[in-house]
Amino acid sequence: MTTPDVHRSRRAGSDILRTAIRRNVGAMVWGTVLMGLYQAGETAFPIALGLIVDHTMGGGRSPGALALSIAALAVIITTVSLSWRFGMRILQKANTTEAHHWRVRVASCGLQPVARDVDLKSGEVLTIATEDADQTADIVEVVPMLISSSVAVLVAAVALSLADLRLGLLVMVGTIAILSTLSVMSKRIGSSTQEQQARVARAGAKVADLITGLRPLHGFGGNHAAFRSYQKVSTEAKEQAITVARVNGVYTGTALGLNATLAASVTLTAGWLAFDGQISIGELVMAVGLAQFIMEPLRLFSDMPKYVMMARASAERMALVLSAPPVAAPGTARPAPGGDLEIDCVRYESLQGLKFRVPAGQFTAIAVYQPRAAAELASILAVNVPPAAYGGAVRLGGQDLAELSVEAVRELMLVNPYDGEIFAGTLRTNIDPSGTSRTVPEAVEASMLTDVVALHRQGLDYEVRDRGSNLSGGQRQRLSLARALAADSDVLVLRDPTTAVDAVTEQLVARKIAELRRGRTTVVITSSPALLDAADRVLVLDDGVVTAEGTHRHLLASDPAYCAAVTR
Description:
The structure is a single chain. The chain is elongated. Helix 2 (25-57) runs antiparallel to helix 9 (281-293) and helix 6 (165-212) runs parallel beside helix 10. The protein has helices at residues 4-23, 25-57, 63-110, 122-137, 139-163, 165-212, 214-220, 223-275, 281-293, 295-322, 371-381, 406-412, 427-431, 440-446, 450-455, 473-486, 503-516, 529-534, 552-558, 560-566; strands at 341-348, 351-358, 363-368, 391-396, 399-400, 413-416, 425-426, 463-464, 491-495, 521-525, 537-542, 545-550. The two termini are 59 Å apart. By secondary structure, the chain is of the alpha/beta class. Strands 6-9-10-3-11-12 form a six-stranded mixed β-sheet, sandwiched between helices. It has a four-stranded antiparallel β-sheet with strand order 2-1-4-5, covered by helices on one side. Strands 7-8 form a two-stranded antiparallel sheet. The relative contact order is 0.09. Strand 9 (491-495), helix 17 (503-516) and strand 10 form a beta-alpha-beta unit.
């Protein structure tokens, strides 16, 4: 039984294909005309040869007639060459442009502030944005090739009918029979290809996850188990690829066999008719030439259903991303700049009626005893959890997050993730991706990234590899912190920004963050004594609620549980 999501994907997939065709209708028309001329020219070549043979056999041997025949062949060859050249140029340009358009569309959906409600990992989205986008765009090229191939078969059938009606009927009936057989087989190719693409995408997502967590896996010896897990997923993708290859092989073999059978039937029939005197030698030459020629358009013609099904399968996979509704429908209001942050009785997973307020301009540290609660609080503040998914309210500048646009929230409040991603580029482009920050030097100083900059003669232009593979764990963490500080947002939320640095560096970072962020709202979710001591106020979050608050030193003296939790 087909689920409603699959039905919706198929409808949206058909809409994607129609959009691609509608957007490229001009290029497709010109491509069809030129490729039709190419196929007609190819068809005309054996017809011209047959006419020349008949003319010669009939005693027409004048130099003028021979020159005219040679000129006609030259025109046909020129038409074939130029029409193919310009026709394929137009179609391939349209194909490439269309593939680029869909890649950008999928990437745009993946990068929207509000995530789409789709159960796909980043590796799967990557496959959709590359392979599926390319295969969907193939429809721009497939349709003109299909029409031009049908033109060639039709011209050949008409020419053969003029020689003998039975030859023309044989071509038409044989072509219909071949296409009917192959259209049934192409449906299986479409479903098999769709499953293969899904499995390859899952394998890609798995290996992306493994690469991201490679260092921790080596740390606790889990790399072998992780490899076996990936090997299993990759084996499933391989087996499905073999199935697709087998189906494609059967399809291609059947198509070639049927095409060869039709060509042989036309040749043998023409030979019998010539032997019986019902057609001339020139007509026999024409028939044999056309029988050999129609193998190519028939091959193209028979391949088209397969490519159409593959394009449709890819379009349906793209529709999983493009037509998926957003996880949440954010508001449109904008918060007042420099406002305070309020958590009002928030209930979500382990958070049980969490309530606190951070006044504008205050540096507040939150000591969370359970790491899960820290992750959930950070996700809510980053608007990764839709406001409708939790109870209570989060207010920024006195306005509920549900009423604010996500773009506006993130312009005012930055939540730096615990595992901030490092991109291939330079230190500078990682700290200031937009190239607009005016506080890069101060951010580098506050994050104590100065030693990394000084270590390399390129300074901030030192090349960083993908995921920061040429940096240590502490360097990557300080680079992520520098990026957060350089954003200079009104409200900054940091989660465990110093877990990978030594105690001396941590003390310096804590003091410099407090100095750099003075007068702006800063929240640090941490268990670091240095950061807790640098904060204006410390909130203790235990079992999903705030159980104590005060300065770090006051809590050390008055709360034994706090002292035991943060002293190290």
